[in-house]
Each structure stands twice: as structure tokens, then as C-alpha cells.
Amino acid sequence: MTNVLLIIFIITLFYVAIANRIITFVRVLALQGFILFGVTFLQLKDIQTWNLVLILLETIVFKTIAVPFFLSYLIKRNKITRETEPYLPHFISLIITTLIVVVTILLANSIQETHLDKIFFIVSLSTLFTGLYFIASRKKIITHVMGYLMIENGVFVLSLAVGNEMPNLVNLGIMLDVFGSVLILGIFLNKIGDVFKAVDVDQLSNLKDY
Amino acid sequence: MIGIYFIGAFVIAGLVAVNRKILFNNILIITFGILQTGFTVYAAFHYKESTLQYFTFDSLGLLLLITLSIITIPALFHSYLYIKRHDETPHSRGIYFAAIIVLVTSITAAYFANHIAVIWIFTEMTTLSASALIYHHRNKLALEGTWKYVFICAISITFVFIGILFLSLSLQHAGSSDLSFSNLLANKDNLNPFWLRLAFLFIFTGFTAKLGLVPMYTAGIDAKDKAPAPAGALLSSVLMNLGFVGIFRFFIIVSHTSIFHWAQLVIFIAASLSIFVATVYMTKVVNIKRMFAYSSIEHMGIVMLGVAAGGIGYYAAVLHIILHAFVKSSLFFQFNQLYRTFQSKSIQYVGNYFKYNPAGAIVLLFAFISATAMPPSGLFVSEFLIFRSLFEGKYIILLVAVLILLTIVIWAFGRNIMKILFLPVPGIDESKIPKINPWESLTQYILLFTAVWLGLNPPSIFVQMIQDAVKILPN
Questions:
Q1: Overall pTM surpassing 0.80 (yes/no)
Q2: Are residues B297 and B369 in the same domain?
Q3: Please, what is the average pLDDT of chain B?
Q4: Do A183 and B150 touch (CB under 8 A)?
Q5: Cβ distance B466 to B315 under 8 Å?
Q6: Residue of A149, B125, B151, B447 with fewest CB within 10 Å of its CB?
Q7: Is B176 within the bounds of a domain?
Q8: d(Cα A142, Cα A135) in Å, to the nearest integer?
Q9: Do A191 and B143 make contact, defined as CB atoms within 8 angstroms?
Q10: CB-based contact (8 Å) between B143 and chain A?
């Protein structure tokens, strides 16, 4: 069952690669949060109940509900246009995402490892690189933020893989989530929306050396 | 005691942030200065002891803490002058000082942390407080700088976290789950090399955002440019040392494993690329603050070359990072007077500084001599030792390339500084130039002379502590 959920997680990456509207990104983030809720529930068996409850609450309340709602609120408030505005066509995005996933699978197959379920490694590493690719290839600041949130989800998957032995690392991952989301989303995306009217990275190029 | 220090510092920071009365604020800030000094003295008297399980007062941490505390006092003083002149609202003044206090406290905690996750947590806190400092002026450019800093630091902090996860996988092969440095060192022979390699790559990349190396150095440049100069002094000296601590403590563990040579290679590549990048930008840059920031990148590259070369290089690297902190912070402290004189950051509109403010001009000249490591600067000694370690390690081609790049840096830096000091700017209105009180340069003189003294005639206890900090590394 865990494997099925994780494979759905990978499929969401492909879906994002060809998504044309920003709101699709937001929905996928919510779906990923829900998948993580399921994976956490199935995977973490050896940890204390209160800790498990904390982690489950974080995935369902924070990742699945609060962050996507806040993102769509920001989109409405700042009147961000609906397109994701990639630099490259969707088809090439899809190919690059596929390449990333394939390379990660090949890398994972080349190692001998008894302590780790390899699918966790594959999912998290390919999410990391896909997220970085999304950040590099999209024009709007809000899509950069979503790419970052996606990377966080990928890292969370990896922390679940070692969560039974070291539950504190999962808690640290939650801290990272809260830190990243509150600082990046809460304060600055709000401010940037106020100060820069159209929220494109092109406007963030005034700090120069000459 | 470290608990009392944390509680005290955070209470002071909270009070400073909400309080509106200038007098009470000043008393609180002085109290923090006393608390920071007191804690430094306490740490020195409890050398090698552990407290609260996650903190150890070891040599490296203590050396850097003393550096931090020495720099904090003038930073608070110059911040006070800066805020007074800018006629700030009580709110923004409170936020500024609260952010400085939180920044200094979290850097202190990270220096002493003996657990990689604890360093990680406090590094996150430095990002938080530094972003408040960068956003101090609340204009478009400050927002752009803050956004870039926060975003890149958030990604690097995620990288460090991934590295910690890989490290935990590596450690599971040794049948242990405690990620403290002492436990990692005890299990050094059983760590899985594959995961350790990945862990090193990610942790190194993550900490380069704070240390200022390729690939993540970019955010720091914008940050030092947009933050007020006294805060920029902290960002470009003690905060960079925090990145060094993060990498160095992990490097100590890696140096006892089979991937040691590979790790050296990674550091060599990042360090020499950093020097190259810094050189290229130094020849082009016209913004004075950014020029100082690129000079920091170049110095961190030299420091990491020393770490990678080994031998005497370890000693020289620790010495260099301490001396660099003194020199670079004094340059940033001096910058505000320069800005008040000419009302510009651009080298094109600044010149003939010797005529308007001789005391400050001598600081600039002397700091330039120090930062380019010419004798009698203390950095000459450490840089010379680093080159010796490269020579002894038979990295001759690298050494020659680095020396050529450094010559270009000295040329570019010298050209700009000489222009600032001696060449008159056409069309400047001399009646508008304010008189600067020469006593404001006193702290810079003290910092620069400390750097000379520690480099040329170091007290024996200082030498012993550096040797103690690096003795665990293989020769």
C-alpha cells in the first residue's frame, strides 16, 4: 500500500510538469500532502503515539489544508494570472522530469542497501531534482515557492524512511516545513505582492554589480 | 549557564522588540553586551566542559566565540549611531536590535553545538534574524535582497537536512542512531561510505550559503549589500565563521574515513572556483559594499584551500578565519562614515577621502593592506602558511593559479581603494560634506591592530587553542 501511494506521488510530478494553470499546482500540493498523511500512517509504526499524532496533524492540517488555501488566497489577492509561464514547452518539461526519475531509479538500483526501502530514496531524490527544475524553469515567484514546497515534501518522504529508527529527524523535517512555509509564504510573498505589482522574477534583477 | 544565557538573550530581544522608550532600549542593549561578554568569560572558565547535553565548550567554539563577542560590542555601538542618525521609528529600531541580538545568540549556540542537528536548527535561526536585518529599510531593493537571501538559504538549509538524513542512513550501518559528533567519530570505521559521500556533498553545499563559497554564495552578496553596514559587518564575518564551523566539524569526521581524499577534492574544486568567481567580480564591481563582500568570498576560498591541503593548512585556516573576521568587520564599520561623507555607494562618485576624513581614510588604507594580506598584516602570516601547505602537498599548479588570481584581486581592490582615497571627484560640492568625528574610527583601529597582533606575535595560549582545535585531524 505504501508503494502504491509513493508511485502516485511520482505520477503527480509528471502531472505538474505538463500543468498549465497555477491552481493545478496548488491542488497537486494538497494531494501530495494527503499522500504523505497516508504514508506516515502506514510507515511509522514504532514511534510514540503522541509523536505520530503530531506528524499526522502536520501533514493533514498544514500540508494538505493550510498551505494550499493560503496559496490560493495569495493568488487571488495579488491577482496573479492563471498560467504558469514556463520558459520551456510542456513537452520538454515532461521529458526532463522523466529523465530525472529514470536516472534516480538507475542510481538507486546500483547500490546495495538493506536499511532503506529504495522506493523512498527514488521518490525523494526525484522530487528534489524535479522541484529544482521547476524553480529554474518557471517565471513567476509563486511557482518558485511551490517548487520549494514540493522539495520539502520530497525531503519529508526521505525522513519517513528513517523515521522508525530516528523519529526526531521527522520532527526536524516538520520544523523545516514550518520554517520555510511561514517565513517564505507568510512574510515575504505577502510583501512582494504589495510592493511589486506583477510578480515575475524579471522584476527581481535590480541588484547588480555594475 | 548556557540555559540562563539563552533565556536572558531571548527575553532581552523580546523586550527590545516591543519597547518604545529609547532610554530603556539602550539599557537593554547594554545589558545584552554585558551578558554576551559574561557568557564568553564563563565559557572560557569552563573550557572543555559539556552543558545541556548538546553544547561543548571546545577550542574551536571558544576561539570563535571570543571573536564574535569582540566584534559584537562595536557592532552594537555602530548600530546605535546608525539608528540615531537615520531617525528611525521606535518599531523599526526595536526590530533591528532584536534581530541583532537573536543573530548573535544563535551564532553563539551554533559554535558550541556538538550535534549536527543542533547546528542545523541554529543555522535556521540565523537566516530568520538576518532576513529581518536585510529588510531593515523596507524598500524595493531591500525586499529583493531579502527575498533572494531567504529563498537560497531555505534551499540550502533543506540540502543540509537531506545531508543529515543520508548521514543517519550511513550511521545505521554502524548500529547507532546518535548523530552527535563524538558518537560519529567513535563509529568512524563503520560508517557506510556511499551514504557518507552523499551526506558530505549535501551538507557541504548547504553550508556554503553561510560560508560564502561556490555554489550558494550569491545570496550573501546581496544580503551584505542591502543590510545596514553594522549588520553587514556581522554577516560578513561571524556568520561566515558559522558556515565554517558547520563544514569543519563534519570534515573532521570525514577525514578519518575512506572518502577523505574525495572530500578534499570536492573542497578544492569549490574553493578554487570561489576564488575565481571573486576575482572576476572584483575587477568589475563598482558598489563598494559588494566589493567588500566579494573579497570575503575570496578569503573563504583561501581558508577552504588550507583545510583541503592539510598539514599546516589546518592551523592556518583557523587562524585566517579569525583574523579575517576582525579585518572585514572593521571595513564594514568604516563604510558608514564613507557613505555619510559622499552619500553614495558607487566608486564613481567617491574620491579624495583623505582630504575629508583622515582618520577614516587611514582605516581604509590599513584595512586594505590587511585584507590583501600584505605585511605587516596578520593575514599575511596565515595566507603564507596556507600557500606553504599547498606547496608541501604538491598542489603546485593550483598554487600558481591561485597566486595569479590573487594578484588580480590585489590589483582590482587596490585600484578601487586608491581611487576612493586619493583621486578627487569632479563636481563635488564640498560645503555639503559633513565633519566626521575621528573617535568613531577608534573601534576599527582596535580591531585591525588585534588582527596584526594575533598574526605576528600571537600569545601562546591562542596558538595552543588553535592547535588543540585541529589536532584531531590526520596529518
A1: yes
A2: yes
A3: 93
A4: yes
A5: yes
A6: B125
A7: no
A8: 10
A9: yes
A10: yes
